[in-house]
Amino acid sequence: MFFAMNRFKVYKDATAEFEQVWLGRDSHLGEMQGFVEFHLLRGPEHDDHVLYASHTVWASRADFEAWTRSEQFRKAHSKAPGTKPLYLSHPQFEGFEAVQTLGRAEAAE
Question: Domain ABM, which positions (predicted)?
Fold first, then answer.
C-alpha cells in the first residue's frame, strides 16, 4: 500500500471555500487502477490557518505515480479555485509506503 498526502495551511476565512472546491470537483480517482480510497481531512486550527490534508490510498507507489502522469490527474486539477488565495503556501506532499497494516481482527489478537 502507498499513502499520498498533501498538507494545506488554509486561511481561516477561506475554509468553507476550500472545502467546497474539494467537495464540488470531479476527482476521476475511481477511474484509476490501484486507487483504494480518498479522504479530505481537517486538522487543528492555528493562529493564522487551519491545517487540512488530502489523503489517498493506493495499492502501490507505481499506481500513484501512474495517476500523477494520467489524463485523469490533469482533468482533476485543471479547475483552479477563484482568484482569492485559499492557503498560505504551496501544499506539502508526503508519500509513505506501508510497513505494517492491521485490520480489526489482527489488532484484537
Answer: 2-96
